[in-house]
Amino acid sequence: MNLIARPDSRIGEQRLLLHDICWDEYVALGEILKDRPALRMTYDRGNLEFMTTSPEHERLKKRLSSILEALADEFGREIATAGNMTFRREDLDRGLEPDDCFWIAHERAMRACKDWDPTRDPPPDLIVEIEISRSALNRLGMFATLGVPEVWRCDGEHFHIHVLQPSGEYQEVKDSPIFPGIPIVEIIPFLQEDETRGYLAMLRAFREWVQQHLPKS
Questions:
Q1: Cα of 125 vs its chain's centroid, Å
Q2: Topology, domain 55-213
Q3: Could you give the CA distance from residue 178 to residue 199 in angstroms, rounded to a whole number?
Q4: What confidence score (pLDDT) does residue 135 get?
Q5: Which one of 22, 73, 189, 217 is at 20 to 30 Å from 59 when CA atoms are compared?
Q6: Cα 34–111–37 angle (5° rounding)?
C-alpha cells in the first residue's frame, strides 16, 4: 500500500491518497467510517482518496444547494435530494460521495427511495461539486461513467456547468438544460458571504433575480 498525504492548512482541508486498495477493502473502510459526515471517500480502480472538508467548503455547499432548491421551486419543479450519499459501482470498480446530488427529471422514481441500486435506479440528474481544494482523482470522469447528465462545480470564485454528451464526455456550457433561460454562471455574488446581507436575505434576493429571468408565459 502506497500513500500520499496532501494537507492544506491554509484552507483547512486535507487529502490522503492510498494506492493498491481492492474493492472489498474500500467497502469495508466505508462501513467503518460511515458515521463521519465531514469525511469524503473517492475510489477509482485501486486508488482511494480521503478528504476532510473545511468550514468554508460546507458553507459554500449549503449556499449553492439552497440556491438550487430555490431555483427548482421558482420553476415549479419537484426535487429529490440525498446529500453526499455514497454511489458504488463494483462493475466499474468506482465509488464516490458527491457534495450534493439531485433527481429532478427522475424525482418521482426516487422520491421515497431509501437507498440507491445501480441495477434499478437512475443516477442523479444533477450533482454539485465544491472545489475549495482539488481532488487528485478525476471525479468529473467518474460522474461521466455513472451517467450523471449535469454537474455544477464551484470554488467560491468561479462557477462551471458541465453537461454530459453522447460521446460520454462532459462539455462546459453557460446555461443549464434543466433550468433554461437562467444565466446560472452569474450566481457567484449570491454564493459569496456578505456582511451587509444575511443568508435568508440572500435567498430572497436570488429568487427576485431568477424571477427577472424566467421565461414569460
A1: 11
A2: tt1808, chain A (3.90.1570)
A3: 25
A4: 87
A5: 73
A6: 20
Q: How, if at all, do strands 170-173 and 80-81 pair?
A: unpaired
Say if strands 94-96 and 87-89 run parallel, antiparallel, or are unpaired: antiparallel
DSSP per-residue letters across 31-84: HHTTT-TTEEEEEETTEEEEEEPPHHHHHHHHHHHHHHHHHHHHTT---EE-TT
Q: Could you report the per-residue pLDDT of 93-142, keeping only the tens digit for each?
A: 999 999 999 999 999 999 888 889 999 999 999 999 999 888 889 999 99
Percentage of residues in the chain with pLDDT exceeding 90? 72
pLDDT at 155 over 70: yes
Residue 26 is classified by DSSP as: H
* Residue ranges of domains in the chain: 55-213
- Per-residue model confidence as pLDDT tens digits over 4-50: 444 444 456 788 999 999 999 999 999 998 877 778 999 999 999 99
Q: Residue 24 is placed in which grid cell?
A: 472489498
CA angle 34, 125, 69 (to 5 degrees): 80
